[in-house]
Design brief:
By secondary structure, the protein is mainly α. The chain has 6 helices and no strands.
Length: 175
């Protein structure tokens, strides 16, 4: 929002305060969307001792008010009974957000575990299938199979490094 527009909101709020059109001041502060203007208006209501307008500002501009500012003003000016509905709602909103974040984190954790299990199971399937067929998965240049198997070792050892007694030509050589 431009500073020019903020100045107009600020001027409008100042005029409303001078004329004691507090409802208009609160609505203008809300319309501005500027938490600083709302905070200044709340400080004004607290300083003149207007508990009802303080409470109305808490209710109307709820989304723009920082809880620490509201608590400080209520404590300083003894407005705690007017603050309580705001604080109850704030704590409720925070609890809902935390519950949502916790569920989301738990869901992500479960999803990651499932993915790890699926990857682990698919790797076991590949290893089992390769061993049972005697084939070796390609693991990149320079890979040395510790068991001496694989397609590159076909010959008298047979497929996959197993000594079958057959040569690469299918003739039985005996053990």
């Amino acid at each position: 929002m431009s500073t020019e527009k903020n100045k107009k909101f600020e001027q409008s709020i100042d005029i409303s305060k001078k004329l004691e059109y507090y409802k208009d001041a609160i609505e203008t502060a809300l319309e501005s969307g500027n938490d600083k203007l709302v905070e200044d208006l709340m400080r004004f209501f607290a300083s003149v001792g207007d508990r009802e307008c303080f409470a109305a500002c808490l209710y109307t501009c709820y989304e723009l008010i920082k809880p620490d500012v509201a608590m400080e003003l209520a404590w300083r000016y003894d407005f705690t009974e007017f603050l309580m509905p705001y604080m109850i709602q704030t704590v409720r909103d925070l609890t809902i957000r935390m519950d949502h974040m916790q569920r989301k984190a738990e869901d992500n954790e479960i999803k990651q575990k499932k993915e790890k299990e699926e990857v682990g199971l698919s790797q076991l399937d590949v290893q089992f299938n390769l061993q049972s067929t005697g084939l070796q998965a390609y693991a990149g240049p320079g890979y040395q199979d510790p068991y001496g198997g694989g397609m590159g070792n076909m010959g008298s050892q047979g497929y996959g490094g197993m000594n079958t007694g057959f040569s690469s030509h299918g003739n039985y050589q005996g053990y």
